[in-house]
## 1
Amino acid sequence: MEFLGAAAAGGSGDSPSRFSNRAALRSGEAADLLIIGSGIDDTIAEGDIKLLGGGVSLRPGSLRIERGFTINRMNPLRITLDIRSRTEPALSSIVITKGPSTISWSGSLLVTPAPGFTAAGVGNVASYQTGGVSPGEIVAIFGSNIGPVKTVLNGGFDASSGRLPGALADVRVTFDGIAAPAFFVSAGQVNVQVPYEVAGRATTRAAIRYRDLSTSVVTLPVLAAKPGIFTLDGTRAIVVHPDGSLNGASNAVAKGTAILLFATGSGVTDPPVATGKAASSTTLSSARGAALTIGGTAAQVLFAGPAPGFTGLTQINAIVPAGAPSGPAVPVVFTVQGAPSVSSTMSIR
C-alpha cells in the first residue's frame, strides 16, 4: 500500500499529520488507521484485512471510506484499531488481500508505549522543586517514553532566529500551545525553558509530542517566580570565588568577599528577555525584587538578572556579609518577588 496514517479513533474528516509507509500507534488506546493505495476502495471487506503481531486488532464494524478529504485524488480507507497495553515497543503488520485476487498490500505499524508525565514530574532544573512553573524558568520534565532512548543535546542557537530550538529530535514541548526552547531530550527526561508568554496566567497547559504521539495535557500553576539555586550535589551551591575557584569545605570564602552564584526561575525581568533568546551582554536585565541571605543575614546584591549569553539562567553577584556565620555549610537563600528558593549551603571562614 502507498500510505498509512493514524488519527483519533472514531473520527471523520480529520487528516493525519503525515502519511508514510509506517504508522505510529500508542499502546493501550484505540486509534483510526487511514490507508491510501491504488485499488484500495469500498470493495475491500473486513475479512480482507489481516493484522499480525503487536497486540493490534481490528474493531468489528469500523471499516469505512473517509469522505472528508482526498490524497492524490483518492479517498482513504479508514478502520479503527484496538491496541493492547504494553511496556515495550513492538511492530505489527497490516496485510490487505483484495477478495479472491492475488493482489495484496502490506504496511508496518509501530506500537509504542504511551508517552506520559504528571505535574509531580515537572520541577525547577536547579532545585527540582515542583508545584508550578514560572515564566522563563528552566524546568526538568520527568516522564516515560517522552523522547529518544539516547539523550540528544541541542546544537545551540538557531542562526536565523537567534533562539534555542522549539523542537529537538522529534520532541516538542508546549505550554498553552507555545513551543518551549529545548536544552536536551531523552526517553525519561526533557529540559526546556518555560515560555515567558505564560506570565500573568493562573495556569498553563503543558504537553509533549514525540514523533506522532502526544501526552495528555497537564495543567500547572503559573507563579510569578520560583527561583532555584544551582548546586554541585543537590545541597552545596555552586559559588564562584573572585579567582574562579569553587567554594567548598576546603576552600571557604572570607566575609566581605564578592561571590558569584547561578539560579533559574526568576520570572519576568526588567527589561524583558525574549523566550529562547540569549541574554544581552550590553543591555543587562534585572530580576524583580531580588534578595540573597547567607546564614540568615542579608547580603549586598550587586547584580541579579539573566546571565549574558545564556537562556533562562540567572546570575547573582553578591558580597558575603560581615555578619554571616562561619562554618562549612552556611544556608543560602535567593528570593525573587517574595518567593524564596530552596535553601542550599556554602562554606565561610
Note: The first strand starts at residue 3 and ends at 8.
## 2
Amino acid sequence: MPQRNISVAVLYNHIGKDEYEDLRKVDAASLDFEPEYPIHVATAKEEYQAIVEALQAEDFHAQAINMRDDPSRLQSVLRRDPPDVIFNLVELFHDDPWLESAVAAIFDLYCIPYTGSPPFSLTLCRRKGLTKQVLLQNSVATPRFRVLKTPKVPRRHGLRYPLIVKPSREDASAGVEQDSVVVDFSQLTVRVGEMFERFDPPILIEEFIEGKELHVSVLGNNPPQVLPIIEFDFSELPEDHPSIITYDMKWNPLSLAYHKVHSRCPAQLAKRVEQRVKKHALEAYLVTSCRDYARIDMRLSKNNKPYVLEVNPNPDLTEGVSLMESAEAAGLSFSKTLRKIVDFALERRTE
C-alpha cells in the first residue's frame, strides 16, 4: 500500500485589503525616479501560495488556510482533520502582533507540531529591551541602550552619540526612518517625542554602531546551521541618509530608498571576522530559544566588532529575499529550504 503524503497546513491570518494590490495600478513611469527593482511585488496571498506550491513540489500534501481572525476556523481544522504539521505564518491576530505567540500556544495545546519558534521566543523577541538584557547576560554584544517609558529624556543618559531611536515593541522596522539616527540632545528629544506620539511605549534609544549592516540567518536545531551572511551596500544613498535599513527600504517599492540599497551574499568579510559574526549570531539564536529558523540583525563596527541589534524568529520567507537569499547562497533551493523547515517540525511529532 503506498505511503500517504505528509499533510501540511500553511496557516496564516489575513483580513482586509492587501496594500500591494493597489501597487498593481501604479505605472513605474509615473515615479520621479527610475526604479531598479520591480514595484509590483507579490501580495501576501501570492507569497503564501508560493510556499504551498513549493511544498507540493517536495511531495507534501499542502494547502493554505486563512484564519480570518476567527479561532473557530482553526479549531475546526485541528479537530476535524488535523494536519501532520502546521507551517506557521501567523504574525498577528485581531490586528494585534502580541497575539502571535498565543496562536502558537494553541498548536501546543493540541499537540500538533508546527514550524518556527515557540511562544516564549516569539514573546521575548518582540520586547527589544528585554531581549538585549538576555543577550548581555549571556555575553552577546549588543549596543548600549536605554528604554524610555515616558517622553522625558534625561540629558545625562549615559550613551554616546550618534544614537538611534526606535519603538521597543514593534517589528519589520516599523518606526525606523531616515531621521531615526540623531547626533545631539536636541535631535534626540524631538525624535523621542515623535516616537511617543506614533507608537506605544516604551521607546528604545541605543548607540548607533558606525560600520556594516549584516543579516545572519540560522537554520535548524541539532545543531543549527548559520547560513551565508548578507551585507548591505548603502553607497547609492544620499549623503544625508544614515546607513540603516528603514521601513521604506524593506516594504515600500515606491520610495527611492527601496531601490538604492543592495544586498551582497555572501558578505565580503575576512575569515576570522566572519567566524566571529557567525558565533555571535548562533549564540543569540540559542539564548533566545529560537527554533527551526531565524534571522539575526547585526552591525559590524569599523574595528570589526559584531553587535546584535535584534533577533527575528519566524522571519520573512519570500523567495530570493533575506533568509531565502542566504539559503540559496548555501546551495539550498526555495523548496528544499521549506522542506527542511517542515522536517524540523516533524521531528517533534509524538506518536
Note: Residues 7-116 form a domain with the Rossmann fold fold (CATH 3.40.50).
## 3
Amino acid sequence: MTRQFTYSGSPAHIVFGNGASSEVGSWVEKLGCKRALVLSTPHQTADGEALATRLGPLAAGTFSGAAMHTPVDVTEAAMNTAKEVSADCVVSLGGGSTTGLGKAIAYRTDLPQIVIPTTYAGSEVTPILGQTENGVKTTVRDAKILPEVVIYDPELTIGLPIAMSVTSGLNAMAHAAEALYAQDRNPVSTLMATEGLRALKAALPVLVKEPRNLEARGDALYGAWLCGTVLGAVGMALHHKICHTLGGSFDLPHAETHAVMLPHTIGFNAVAVPELLRPVADIFGGSPGGGLHGFAASVGAPLTLRELGLKRADLDRAAETATKNPYWNPRSFDRAAIRALLQDAWEGRRPQN
C-alpha cells in the first residue's frame, strides 16, 4: 500500500552535548542579539544569576518569577522587565515553567528565544503555549512561540531530584504516546515517538538507582527532545485536555498530573486503537495502560490524583470542564466516561487495557 502523509520539520537549532551550555553566549550573538534577559523560577534564581554573570555584557538582566502553568500576570510582569532593560532576546534556564514564560513573551513580542532545559518537559521544541488566566488554562499554536535555539546539556540535569526526574520523564512520554494515534501522525513522528519512549524507559530506572549517572541523564534528555519534538509536530488528544483542565482549573502540579493520568488515558484509548498503541505495549509489556502503570509504579511515580491534592468533590467539575470544547480523540467519550476515568485515576486503579 502506498503511504500518504505530510511532514514538516522544525526550524529550531538543536545543540546537544555535555558542556553545551557554555556556548550560550555565542548563540546570543549568532541571533544578532546583544541584550539577553535571563529567565528562571524563584527556585533557580541563583542559577539564572550565574548564567547572566557568564554572559557578561550580553546579559541585560534577570527575571526569576516564572511559575507553573504560565500565569498571564507573571508574563506581563516579565514583559515589563524586558522593556525596562531593553532586552532583545530571552534566555530561559530551567523546566517547563521557565520555558513557558519565554514562549509567552515571544508570542507577544516576537523576541528571539534560547532555551536551556534542566528537566525533561519537552515543551522547548514546540510552537505551543499553554497559559492560565482566571483559573482557565488555554493553549495557542504560533510560529513565534517556537524557540530559535535549544541547548541540551546533560550535565545541568545531574542535580535534578529523582522524584522530579521521574515525573518530568513521564510527562515527556505522554507527548510521545499521544503522538502515536494523532490524526496528523506520519512515519517520522511515529519513529521519533517510539524512540523517545524507549530512551526514557531505559534511562529512568537507572537514574532512580544512580542519580548522577551522566550517560543515563543524557539518554533521558535525548528521549525528552524526541518526545517534545513530536508534541510540536502533531496534534494531542484526550490526555492533554484532561491534564490542562486539572492544572489550569485545580492548580495540580503539571508533571505529576501527566504522570498519574498517562496510564489511564492511554488505556482508555487503547480500546479504540490497539494497533497504533502496540509500540507502548511492546516497550512496557502487557497492555498499553497496564504496562505504563506498572512502569510508573516501578520508578516511584505518584499513582493517584488524590495524593496530588485533588478532592473527591472536585471530580464532577473536572469531568464537566474536561468535556467542554474537547480535543479530537480516537475514541469517542461523554461526561460519564471521563468521570469514571477520573475516578480510577483518583483512586489509582491499574488500567485493564
Note: Residues 13-157 form a domain with the Rossmann fold fold (CATH 3.40.50.1970).
